[in-house]
Structures are given as structure tokens and as C-alpha cells.
Amino acid sequence: MDFSLPEDARQLQKLCLDFGEKEIEPYAQEWSEEERFPTDTFLKLGQLDLAGLLIPEEYGGADVGYVAYVAAMEALGAADQSFAAAWNAHSTIASLPLLAYGTEEQKQRWLRPLARGEAIGAFGLTEPAAGSDASAVRTHARPVSGGWVLNGTKMFITNAGTDITLGVTVLASTSRGSEGRKRFGTFFVPSGTSGFTVGRKLRKLGWHAMDTRELIFEDCFIPDENLIGEEGEGLRQFLAVLDGGRISVAALSLSLASRALELGIGYVREREQFGKTLSEFQAVQHSVATMATEVDAARMLVYRAAWLADNGEDFSEAAAMAKLYASEVANRVASASVQVHGGYGYIRESTISRFYADAKVLEIGEGTNEIQRNVIARTVLRRNVRG
């Protein structure tokens, strides 16, 4: 087995490392304190063809595949999690439904500017009463002449309120089938549409620089041509692209764990107590060893899921495992790194404190870890067991 990155993935990772060091890291703390998403920096990312890594070139993307995408995320996520998380939401759940189910006209009209990084995209699923249970969404689309009228509220939506937001892809119930089951549709709602209101910016425990909002739809008319895919298939469409999103959040988690380990190692090599550097104490050495081992194990799971996706294999279980384990490793390693930093790690001016605050949401977003365990268990229990 060859565990080395392909040359194109290494080059992409180097490009992202350079971008992160020059355009993100020097300003990340400022963005966090101001709770401001740097749209100008995102547009610079687009100029380097980094905004549509999973989108084919014919629609303005680079189509590098998941292994190279994970490599890019390792670099960008190590620079700042808020920026990387916004880029991730844009690159996956905001863009992939259009790629998979959009018409050619929809792809040219909306997917192309997203993939080129000329605008940023958002996806609206979560609601005040619907999260893990996606079928519980109450936002409703009523058919009218020439289109649909949306009413409802979305919550915790990423990228919806920036000055470069193209629009938001919204999951809504449309009707009930013959057996009384809800039917769903996916709709693209451009920014500025009448009846579509972007709420106040939500103040979060972490991801301070990422734009997160409540969305309100009040008799919001959407023309028929804004329906993505078939009416009645919206929920299935969303679930079909979710596995790719899980790989991306796993990669984001890996990037956080790797950076937290790096920060911890750097600190214990320099900090002295009782006449020795912290790195000379066995207890600290054991902590570093545990962190390093878990980061490496997470890396194997994440890249395995990405490799399976790139090679056309079933990667649903692997993506769930990668997301589950990498997100929990990110939390453990961030906590352990703060511990070896001591009091300095608890000061907001320290870099590790920002990554520590960002870690928790990784166990929640893109399907909670409880949901990941459900997905994994269903797959494992369906397998034939040798007697």
C-alpha cells in the first residue's frame, strides 16, 4: 500500500499552505475578535481556483477529487477554522446539490459563479425544531401559478448573510404523498428575493469569524425554474450528497487536531519549569505521544474515506467513521494541547484557545456523532457474519 499523497495533491496542499500563511493566519485573531467573515480573502481564494475543488472544470471548478480536497483542507483548516469551515460549506453542501441535480441552465447561472469563487453559497436545512431529524422541517413550499411560495424559518445557516452571498439552497416540504408521508423539494433562493429575510448574525461559542444566521421566509415567491431536481425528491437528494460533506468535516477536524498538536509541541519545547523544558517531563511526553497517535489514526480514516469516494466505492460507512473519530480526536487533542499550555492556553490571545473553542461544533455539524454511530451500526449489523 502506498500512503503518500499524489503529486497533484501535494502541490495543491502547498498552494493552500502558502495562502494560509500569507492571507489567513496573520489576520485570523482579528477576524475572530471582530466576528467578521473576510469576504475579500475568500475572493482571493477564488482567484487561485480554490473555491470549486469538487466541481468539474466545465462549470468553473478544478475537479481535484476528495483526496486532494482533504489535503487542501489540512492546510486551510490549520490556518483558521472559521475561514475553512465557511469554505467547506460553500464547496460541499452549497454547491454539490446543484452539480448533482441542477439543470444545465441552473449550473451555468448559479454553480459556475460559486465554483469560480466570485460569490459564496449557503445551504438551508436546519430549523429551530429540525436538525438531526431532517424530515421534521416545517418550512413549506406551496405551489402557485408559475412557481412556489415559501414560508418558514431556518436556523444556524452558514454563509447566508455576507456581502458576496449568491443565495441559499433551501429544503422545504411541498406536499404529502398518498400514504400521508411528507414530500420535499430543494429550491435556490437568490439573495435579495422579496419575502426572504436574513436575520441577525448569531454569536457562537466558536467559529467566531464565520457568518451564521437565521433565515426567514414570508410568502417568498420562487419561480419554477428555481426548483433543483424533482419535486418530492428533495430529502433524498440532500441525503445523497451528505456523505461527501461528512468527509469534508472529518478533514476539517483532522486539520484542527493536527494544528493543536503542532502548537502543543512548539510550546512544550520552549516552556521551562523546574529548570527543564516541559518536553523533558515524562507526563508531557506521554500526552504528546497520545495526541500524535490519535492524529495519525484519524488521518488514516479520513484519507481512506476520501480514497474510496475517488475510486467509486461505497464510502458511506467510511465517511461516518472518519467524521465520528476525527471530530472526537479534534476535541481530545485540543483539550490536551490547552492543558500543556497551562494558563497561557486559556487566554484568548493564544492561538490554541481559538482552536479549542472551535473544536466542539465538529461533533455536532454535518450530522451529530450520535447520528454517525447510527449510520455505522446499521451498516455493520447488515453484514453477513461468518459462523
Automatic annotation (TrEMBL):
Keywords noted in UniProt: FAD, Flavoprotein, Oxidoreductase
The keyword Oxidoreductase is annotated on this UniProt entry: yes
Domain Acyl-CoA oxidase/dehydrogenase middle, first and last residues per copy: 122-220
Protein name: Acyl-CoA dehydrogenase
Domain Acyl-CoA dehydrogenase/oxidase N-terminal: 7-118
UniProt catalytic activity: a 2,3-saturated acyl-CoA + A = a 2,3-dehydroacyl-CoA + AH2
Native organism: Gordonia insulae
Manganese listed as a keyword: no
Pfam families assigned to the protein according to its UniProt record, in alphabetical order: Acyl-CoA_dh_1, Acyl-CoA_dh_M, Acyl-CoA_dh_N
GO molecular function: acyl-CoA dehydrogenase activity; flavin adenine dinucleotide binding
Swiss-Prot/TrEMBL cofactor(s): FAD
Family: Belongs to the acyl-CoA dehydrogenase family.
InterPro entries: Acyl-CoA_DH_CS (IPR006089), Acyl-CoA_Oxase/DH_mid-dom (IPR006091), Acyl-CoA_Oxase/DH_mid-dom_sf (IPR046373), AcylCo_DH-like_C (IPR036250), AcylCo_DH/oxidase_C (IPR009075), AcylCoA_DH/ox_N (IPR013786), AcylCoA_DH/ox_N_sf (IPR037069), AcylCoA_DH/oxidase_NM_dom_sf (IPR009100)
Gene3D superfamilies found in the cross-reference section: Acyl-CoA dehydrogenase/oxidase, N-terminal domain (1.10.540.10), Butyryl-CoA Dehydrogenase, subunit A, domain 2 (2.40.110.10), Butyryl-CoA Dehydrogenase, subunit A, domain 3 (1.20.140.10)
Ranges of residues in domain Acyl-CoA dehydrogenase/oxidase C-terminal: 232-380
